[in-house]
């Protein structure tokens, strides 16, 4: 059962905003993870190292917090859903050119209408998906 | 510092934020998306915190001529709200709603779990590759070349 954690949510969000600002200030890049990772698939020269290091940083940063506090990663999805979900996230984020970090944080921070609309669409889409899975089909965690 | 170290630093702070906020936990993300169920509004606060900082931070940063370790800011230039944007967002949303993982948290979660995240990430990579391969095969969008554009 999940509980509302306003303080850590806000704090974590602030760190995410800070990280995005850092990447823009230091390297002039948008901290959109689907874009950063996607750019590794057919990289231009000079584009591999910083992307790989950013992604490695994601794991290191998360892991560092895990040293201080227990971190739960509860994944209920069975294998077929993991695969279907992964395929859709991978395909969709490339097609739509962004994800929760790229559109949801960076895009909206820049007041991009594209990103605001994209975020609205994927939030609704995700919400409907969860509703159907949990309350129509009836698969409860 | 240099460009590479800056990327590592930013990624680390980002990953820290993902862990602190609980976003690496699909159960918590799905609880936010499950409005009809036991709703956990935490993700809304994560977004609010991130946006508050990024909005101010970006405005300050973009006043500069250039970033510190690169020649220029690489900002997305696309403006159109088209089928690709909407379709892509919709598909991404479905995938996200099925598992509770989006790209960043999925990668960061590797600090704590390996089997399910790796399966998801392999599929995510496959999906991304599929799109890029199909985009290469398709003729490019003619928005720049179409008359009256």
Beta fraction of chain B: under 5%
- Rg for CA atoms of chain B: 19 Å
Distinct helical segment count of chain A: 6
Q: Structural class, from secondary structure content of chain B?
A: mainly alpha
Percent range of helical residues of chain B:
55-70%
Distance between the terminal alpha carbons of chain B, to the nearest Å? Answer: 44 Å
Low-confidence stretches of chain A are: none
- Classify the oligomer: heterodimer
Question: Helices, strands, pairings?
Answer:
The complex is a heterodimer of chains A (141) and B (149).
Chain A: H1 6-27, H2 33-38, H3 48-68, H4 79-95, H5 100-109, H6 113-136
Chain B: H1 3-21, H2 26-33, H3 42-61, H4 83-99, H5 103-108, H6 115-137
If you had to describe this structure to a student in words, what would you say it looks like?
The complex is a heterodimer of chains A (141) and B (149). Chain A is mostly helical. The N and C termini of chain A lie close together (9 Å). Chain A has helices spanning 6-27, 33-38, 48-68, 79-95, 100-109, 113-136. The mean pLDDT of chain A is 96. Chain A is built from six helices and no strands. Chain A is globular. Chain B is built from six helices and no strands. Chain B has helices at 3-21, 26-33, 42-61, 83-99, 103-108, 115-137. At the A-B interface, helix 1, helix 2, helix 3, helix 4 and helix 5 of A face helix 1, helix 2, helix 3, helix 4 and helix 5 of B.
């Amino acid at each position: 059962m999940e509980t509302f954690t306003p303080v850590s949510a806000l704090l974590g969000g602030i760190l995410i905003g800070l990280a995005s600002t850092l990447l823009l200030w230091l390297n002039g890049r948008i901290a959109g993870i689907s874009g950063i990772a996607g750019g590794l698939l057919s990289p231009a020269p000079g584009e591999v190292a910083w992307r790989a290091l950013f992604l490695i940083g994601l794991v290191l940063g998360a892991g560092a917090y895990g040293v201080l506090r227990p971190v739960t990663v509860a994944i209920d999805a069975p294998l077929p859903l993991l695969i279907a979900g992964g395929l859709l996230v991978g395909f969709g984020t490339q097609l739509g050119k962004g994800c929760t970090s790229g559109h949801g944080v960076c895009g909206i921070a820049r007041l991009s209408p594209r990103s605001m609309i994209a975020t609205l669409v994927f939030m609704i889409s995700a919400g409907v998906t969860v509703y159907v899975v949990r309350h129509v089909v009836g698969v409860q965690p | 510092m240099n460009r590479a170290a800056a990327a590592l630093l930013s990624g680390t702070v980002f990953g820290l934020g993902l862990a602190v906020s609980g976003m690496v936990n699909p159960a918590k993300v799905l609880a936010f998306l499950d409005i009809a169920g036991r709703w956990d509004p935490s993700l809304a606060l994560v977004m609010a915190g991130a946006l508050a900082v990024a909005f101010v931070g970006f405005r300050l940063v973009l006043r500069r001529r250039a970033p510190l370790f690169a020649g220029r800011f690489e900002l997305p230039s696309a403006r159109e709200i088209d089928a690709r944007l909407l379709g892509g967002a919709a598909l991404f949303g479905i995938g996200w709603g099925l598992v509770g993982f989006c790209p960043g948290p999925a990668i960061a979660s590797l600090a704590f779990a390996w089997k399910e995240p790796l399966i998801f990430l392999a599929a995510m990579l496959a999906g991304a590759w599929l799109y890029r391969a199909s985009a290469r095969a398709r003729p490019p969008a003619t928005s720049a070349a179409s008359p009256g554009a």
